[in-house]
Fold these 2 entries.
Entry 1:
Amino acid sequence: MNTALDRRAAVQALLQDRGDLLVISGLGSSSYDVFAAGDHPANFYLWGAMGGAAMMGLGLALAQPSRPVAVITGDGEQLMGLGGLATAAAKKPSNLSIIVLDNAHFGETGMQMSHSGLGARLELIASGAGFPSVSTIADQVALDAFRPKLRDRAGPHFARVVISTDHVDRALPPRDGVFLKNRFRGHLGYPVS
Amino acid sequence: MAASDTPTTGPDWPLAIYEALKAADVRQLCYVPDAGHSRLIRLAHDDPAIATTVLTTEEEGVALSAGAWLGGQRAVLLMQSSGVGNCVNMLSLLSSCRFPFLTFVTMRGEWAEFNPWQVAMGKATPAAFDIMGVTVFRLERPDDAGEMAAAAARLAFDSDQAIAVLISQRMIGAKKWTEGK
């Protein structure tokens, strides 16, 4: 049996009372989880660009220093962009949180075991990259304790959320990137030119 | 003295690019370093109005530029031609979402190159951009730098295009190995 957190419930809990939080989600299940927690114009769902979620979050966090930014992605997506952890840590944006939903598998492609399942420790990699704040979240208590950090301006934060491999139904956000981009910028007050 | 600090004669083209980027309100600059970009990188680091980010690999800069635009800022990516191939899949982000994108690429492997390992990616650089829908400008003369950077920025940020300005290796000069030894 699997005692790890349910990914949908975990993301829903992280995003409750989200306030002015801006969210980038990594392709695949992470985008479905963020959408299932409640569609919002301040969500940008990636459907591709694997390995780029954290860097998109960094560019956004630097552009919007007064807004908290959360990247919510999976272990496979982050593993493809491990160098980006060093880049984000070197830049130290205090308003950025990178949250990796870690089920130790590539869930979209047949549940092959990922490096995380084969011994890679993402929280140690983030710590070694220079993140000043690293959390491992394996239960609801830790999840509730972490949530205020999304807004505490003491980042960048890195959190590995240990999630179950149990199946969840797909919840598909819009796939039109131009729509998602314009909706996001419109939310921030930038008109479509 | 490092090779990158070798005094140059002729027009100060990195300054011309910097001034064009300032005029275009570019607020973020990210890079994988190259000696040919060292002066422009230094100008950006010295400017508190530009957030300057060093990358571990070039495709990070494609995603970072898209994130900056989502947040209302204009970004540029500096790299050398050997890094262009690293960007190919990430460039799909630009066409999928019609993100503006502007990169300045110092060329290797094309003019008096001493390192054969630089030649393959140098030769493939324009085609790699082309297959991903990035428009390529060729900067061959230092005197054209400011005007071309301004035109590229206008096309990128006002017309939502992805633009790569390839800076000729002839402009940068052959890499020198003697200084600092």
Entry 2:
Amino acid sequence: MPDATGLELLAGELRDADADTVLGTLYFRDKGAIDVAPSRIREVLRFLKGKGYTFLASVHGLDYYPEEPRLGVQYELLDMSSVDRLTVRLRVPVDAPNVPSVTPEWPTADHQEREVWDMFGVVFDGHPDPRRILMPEDYEGHPQRRDFPVGGEPVLFTYHQAQGTDYTLGVDPPHEGSSTPA
Amino acid sequence: MSSVETRDVDVLDLGELGHHAGDAEQTELLTINLGPHHPATHGVLRLYTTLEGEVIRDIKPIIGYVHTGIEKTAEDKSYWKVIPVVERMDYLAYYFNAHAFCGAVETLLELEVPKRAQYLRVIHLELNRIQSHLVWLGTSALDVGAMSLLFYCFRERENCLDLFEMSSGQRMHTRYIQVGGVMEDIPVGFAEKAKAFTKRMRNSADDYHALLSKNEIFLNRMRNVTPLDEQTLLDLGVTGPLLRAAGNPWDLRKAQPYSSYEDFDFKIPVGTKGDNWDRYAVRMAEIYESCDIIDQALDGLPEGAHIADDRKVVLPPRHELATSMEALIHHFKLVTEGFRVPPGEAYYPIESPRGELGCFVRSDGSSKPARVHMREPSFVNLQAIGPMVTDSYIADLIATLAMLDPILGGIDR
């Protein structure tokens, strides 16, 4: 695991390359995290790849509601030779949720970026296949956001609703020969 | 003997002549949906496949059919109630899901897990790994036409589930691993039964080898079929037996030991080519290694508590409730509100039967997690199906998908 000093050195090198890249660092529970500007994510990951963090283990989204900027994306990097983990974090606001896609350089991010778009509505510019992945293609909204309500999903199979025979409405006619009302 | 030689020549032909299988004869492309309801897809997986004759030219996995919003549900429950929910993601690796989640919460709480609890976790994790590999082996063999193996594998799996039932009362989704340790110490007789199981399991694995590993038909479906090199796998984020089959000995149990894995003497099986045969052989070898780990953990099981002693997090022992007011208050608070976790974020990776299973938990200081995310190995590994099977026969797709071992409950969550 990198210590707090190693993390600062790494962040310092990133700052030397471009002063606007690093927004802050955090050393928490024996693990380092670097906060970066969203527009610089490709350069940051490329730099860290050169430092030995060649494996992108995970890309996941977060919603920091009610904090601003609300949406977050985190990249879990792994250095397999020195067994080192590092988190790269970025935050984007809901009204401009654009992040450059890292899929062209890290093929593993393909499905995971699609999931973050699906669940949180973060737009990954330059993604080769920016479709929803888990929710249906015509779904509206991004269900993993903190202000997205739980429950109340519209029923996908609407044949019986149109017929007025939807059993969930309690209007189903009784079965033939049955004496109990529906 | 002659048939073996003919097969080798066939394989060489395709590679050395520099063209792909099925070139020249067919030019018309046919697009078919394999699945979502198809027994060979190991779940509700839809493969949007473009074929040229019998040869796959393009393949796109389409997922989400069993998406149940577990990560969303988890945000609405107190920490201890999340455990049974996340267990239902990868339904063959429930101990792993629970351990990844509990590990992340323990990291945030800075909670020390007693040594005995760590060993008990290892015993059950490895039993679970064997159980998961047995389901994989049985269904995969069925896919390539070896039907009888399914019954043998499920026979041994029953014994494994009996052990789970003995220690936790449940056969699947046991909720055995808790934040701070495990639910209960193992009952009297468990160690003997587990020992007997590992002994029998090794013999059974020998039998599986005897049934499959020299079977001409099986070898033809496995050897030199859909190999993928180590670098491509790493770029695609593939971990677990699939990566080890290509020769990279990356295993978190060795590389980043958690839960006292450093105490045990076991080997990491690796392949050389990364073809279907290596994928099969690596998992088969892992069954023996898991048996070794279980035996060592049972022999060296330290004395002590099975769960941490932090009353702010862990339920007090039942007998104290009748005599101690303090215990009653703690019990009441833990059951109604749950424990609070300091604000912060943690990512806790473990080695599941399918690769790196990482649980990300963000706490906002309340008694419910603000975000629970599973880095599911099946979800990431599925991306490799395209590079693996493009330009190979559709029959090889079925065998390769079986060797990929995707669990759709884990992919869709």
